[in-house]
Amino acid sequence: MWILFAFGSAFFAGITAILAKIGIKNTDSNLATALRTVVILFFSWFMVWITGAQHTMNALSLKTILFLVLSGLATGMSWLCYFKALQLGNVNKVTPIDKSSTILTMILSMIFLSEAITGIKILCLFLIGAGTYLMIEKKEETKKAIDNRWLLYASGSAVFASLTSILGKIGIQDVNSNLGTAIRTVIVLIMAWILVFITKKQSEIKELDKKNWLFLFLSGLATGMSWLCYYKALQDGPASIVVPIDKLSILLTIGFSYFILKEELSRKSFAGLILIVIGTLLLLV
Question: Mapped to the 3 state alphabet, what secondary structure does the chain carry?
Fold first, then answer.
């Protein structure tokens, strides 16, 4: 069953990237992240109350709370980096780097979660790494003309996403996954709005049009669904497999970026995408 939740997470995560890209087109990325998190907060706590998980809050240990808080902080950093990267760069370039967090997550899960290392996993790490490289490499003559700050933010997103998975796996071992998601969302919300006020971007809310609000709201709902599926899968399944399945959202994201956002996909990038998918699917063997 955890495999179904993992694929559900991938589906909603793929939709999130496109909806968010459209929603933050003319919006400060930090403000957009903070507004999306409000939607996710209401959605996640709504699920907590529906499932009755709020009654288990008294049973949370200090260790569980600590790792949920740390996981929330890592998630907040990952989001802030990711949506800034989306604002600066193309979806079909940013997403592969973000999804490369699979590599670090697999390594960390072997070290800290004692998940077995096998020949297949090593092969998959190589395929995913090679595929990511092919998807982000640019032609030499265009490198200087492009603002490459998106690369730095996308890399930061991948690192913090990896930490999120490991910390989240430890934090939700003894807690209802819906409740764990809701608690983490509170941390992300606080962190996001602090950054908004520090950068004094709160005044830009009045400049958002109906299209911005609509797509930020929809991306928030999609993220909420992705999170609920992801942490349910992570609670029941091994992180070294759940995370790569979740990263298959790249198929939807790249597909939407090509057909909806009209972003070009070169032969080299397409070959890289194939390698990433093959490497991910081999983990299910």
Answer: CHHHHHHHHHHHHHHHHHHHHHHCCCCCHHHHHHHHHHHHHHHHHHHHHHHCHHHHHHHCCHHHHHHHHHHHHHHHHHHHHHHHHHHHCCHHHHHHHHHCHHHHHHHHHHHHCCCCCCHHHHHHHHHHHHHHHHHHCCCHHHHCCCCCHHHHHHHHHHHHHHHHHHHHHHHCCCCCHHHHHHHHHHHHHHHHHHHHHHCCCHHHHHHCCHHHHHHHHHHHHHHHHHHHHHHHHHHHCCHHHHHHHHCCHHHHHHHHHHHCCCCCCCHHHHHHHHHHHHHHHHCCC
Mean pLDDT of 105-109: 86
Q: Write the pLDDT tens digit of every residue in 5-45.
A: 999 999 998 888 888 878 777 788 889 989 999 999 999 99
- Locate the domains of the chain by residue range: 2-282
% of the chain exceeding 70 in pLDDT: 96
**How far is 84 from 33, CA to CA, in rounded Å?**
9
Token digits for 182?
Answer: 């809701």
